[in-house]
Amino acid sequence: IDSSDGLAASLYELARQSEVNLIIENAPSAKGIQQFAIDNGLAARDLIFYGGEEYEIIATISKVNLERVRSLTRKLKLKLYVIGRVEKGNGKVIILSESGRQLRLMDRGYLHRFVC
After folding, report:
1. Can you give the pTM of this predicted structure?
2. 78 pLDDT band (50/70/90 cuts)?
């Protein structure tokens, strides 16, 4: 799935459709996002999870295949970010804080509205 409607919305869609919970251990963050958030009175977490328009592919990879995929992405000079893990569940997305506390990510992002 792609992240153009916001990472949180994409993660929730993936979790719901797959009937699993996603545990985010390493929130992806572009260089300078913390300072940008401070300079503009914004929360970096909101920018990371609820912003949109960046087009990244969100996917799950089994542990068995992860090293093979890492090798392939290095060979092809592609970036791969491992941000968490999949657990049995019912469509929740959980962020692990630095202290190990589980925080439920809000299901938010860009909503498409169709007018007929």
Report:
1. 0.83
2. very high
